[in-house]
Amino acid sequence: MSKKEFYWLATGLLLTLIFFLPIVNGEFLNWDDPAYIIDNPLIKNLSFEGIKNIFITGEVVGTYSPLVLLSLAIDYNIWGLNPSMFHITNLVIHIIVVVLVFLFTKLLSKNNIIAFITALLFGIHPMHVEAVSWVSARKDLLYSMFFVAGLIVYYLYVSKNQSYKKPYLYVACYLLFIMSLLSKGTAIVFPIILLLIDFFKKRNEFKKIILEKVPFFLLSIYFFIIAITMQSKEGAMGIRGFNSWIDSLSVGFYGYFIYLIKSIIPYNLSPYHPYPNGQGVPNPWYFYLAAVPVLLLFSYIVWKLKKKRHLAFGFGFFFICLIPVIQVLPFGTAVIAERYTYLPYLGLFFLIGFWINNLCQNYIKRRVQVYTAFCLFVIILGGLTFQYTNKFKNSETFWSHVIEKYPNDYLGYLNRSNHRLRLGQYNLALQDASAAIEINQNKPLLWYNRALTYKRLNKNNLALNDLNKTLQLDNKFISGYMNRGIIYGETKEVHKAIADFTKVIELDPNRYLGYYNRALHLKNIGAYEKALKDINKVLSLNQNLIAQSYFIRAELQINFGKIDKAIVDYSNVINLDPDMIESFTKRGTLYIEKGNLEKAINDFNMVLKLDENNYEAFINRGFIFMNQSKLNETLLDFEKAKEINAADEKIYYNMAILFQFQKKYQQALEEIKMCLKLNPDYAPAIETQKQIIDAMQ
């Protein structure tokens, strides 16, 4: 790279950094970020086994993108859940892509100005804000990075005047293609773009061109099948269907038309653009009309195909790269998405650079005006980008912006409600949840969301009403049964709770929370055998709540009289969660029952190490000391327990027993009277009082 090229590139990169600077202070968004980062166990283990799991399991939100997960895992293992660092990584990848775009277009055009304009527009355009500012959109950044790098290598491969060995370049291109596919499935169009480069460079070795693309197309077909399978499994393809193939095509033409317009006039910027019509309703008239300008443009390109190859390349790159995401096959509920333009816009920006350069060459006297107009255009684009990045600061600003743009769509209210619910802003969350229901009363998720809000507000009756409505709309809504069962449990309607958890298990036999919650309620009604079976199922699924499950199983073992097995389970709890105080308490009590007083003391010592104000541990340890005839230690522990909680009758009862043992009957009687004052019906104290009085006579 020459010094002049370096200055051109450095200028573009500096402007890109300036306009995207606000993203550094961004937070995670409650839009795929929890699934990809916050709650994703795959990124939290960077060992060999963890990396293997990323590539084997790598499916998140219906997509297979293991290299994205690997990059997130590296961020997490260096910085933890620090959102700023994840955003900085996104920005760094974007900068790398801008550099690659400059190098690629420089190879194509042999012109610094064209390369600079293409890279600059690519770097600062507002339509790229979503891909850069939203951490989960790293897929678009990463696949584009490998994609463009692969194009550069391929261009060198087909160029005559280069010193690299062609087999090495071919293999490198193929490997970069694989890495692009492992970042995002939309890279399947890569071999078609290679053919476009062949056309642009006027390659005429037809047989060789086709044969060298066969491995690329085979890989594209394989990853296309993977993408369709995963999207179908996730349910994304079933969210919206079209009435006819004409409706389906009209969405594609509309998308192409809007993306073309927004490359020059980036209006109505929003991270979410819902369909303007309801499910099953014909598309608006302008969807069909959009086909006219798109087809006219396509016809013009075909007409000028050989005379203006730059035109065919620029528009061809744009149209081809959008094919996987143009919504002819509907994925999700958005008619267009700005992040989809990230790589495709390279073709359009290349054309803009070409046209501006031609204007300056053909109208030398107007060169200053042309550059001035372009600079003004850049300032406007940069200003919009800088302003728009602030909308991605957090979930509140993000979804508020969506609501501002689309006040009659439920999704913005739903997600802002979830965000406010997480922050404990329950009344505001309720307002949003209710607003979403007013817009769409037939979507079970909205009723479910409001039910969760009512539950946080301790309005269980209203929560139950909404959960009933949820299940009326969708009788297979598993989370609806789960949460209704939890509420029934809290309101002591145990049999209804058990019925709901049973329904959860019927719908998903591997849903461990269904077994866990049912076990709790079966235990409460004395159905110990069934409860034990459910807890064993939880443990066999090897999911979360392992320590809690061992704890419950230990309690069940006690009911069966299997003290040794209960001790083993409490030990398992302690190994998994050494801070779970109650496990030490329970095990210590069982050790007393078994007569293993030293082990019992060790457990109560551990309780007091974890919680020095645990008065029950002092009582239990004092009881052991009394059995060991360590009466001074016993008295100290009982007095410490009384100091911490003077309202527990058991303390006075045990003190009375101690004094009775020492034949200090008057002191024993005073302690018993205090015990009975706190609890007049405490039977052991009544009996001990009689014994003390008899001994005093």
The helix tally amounts to 35
Give the CA-CA distance, first to last residue: 109 Å
* Largest sheet data: 2 strands, antiparallel
Mean pLDDT, all residues: 89
Unreliable stretches covering 5 or more consecutive residues? none
Strand content: under 5%
Radius of gyration: 34 Å
Amount of helix: over 70%
Specify the structural class.
Answer: mainly alpha
Number of DSSP E strands: 4
How is the topology of this model organized?
Blueprint: H1 3-20, H2 33-38, H3 48-57, E1 59-60, E2 63-64, H4 66-79, H5 83-109, H6 112-124, H7 129-133, H8 138-158, H9 166-181, H10 190-200, H11 206-234, H12 245-264, E3 273-274, H13 285-289, H14 291-303, H15 309-322, E4 334-336, H16 345-362, H17 367-389, H18 395-405, H19 410-422, H20 426-439, H21 444-456, H22 460-473, H23 478-490, H24 494-507, H25 512-524, H26 528-541, H27 546-559, H28 563-576, H29 581-594, H30 597-610, H31 615-627, H32 631-644, H33 649-661, H34 665-678, H35 683-696
Helix pairs in contact: 1-5, 1-6, 1-17, 3-4, 5-6, 5-8, 6-16, 8-9, 8-10, 9-11, 10-11, 10-15, 15-16, 16-17, 18-19, 19-20, 19-21, 20-21, 21-22, 22-23, 23-24, 23-25, 24-25, 25-26, 26-27, 27-28, 28-29, 29-30, 30-31, 31-32, 32-33, 33-34, 33-35, 34-35
Keywords, separated by commas or semicolons:
mainly alpha, elongated, 697 residues, single chain, 4 strands, two-stranded antiparallel ribbon
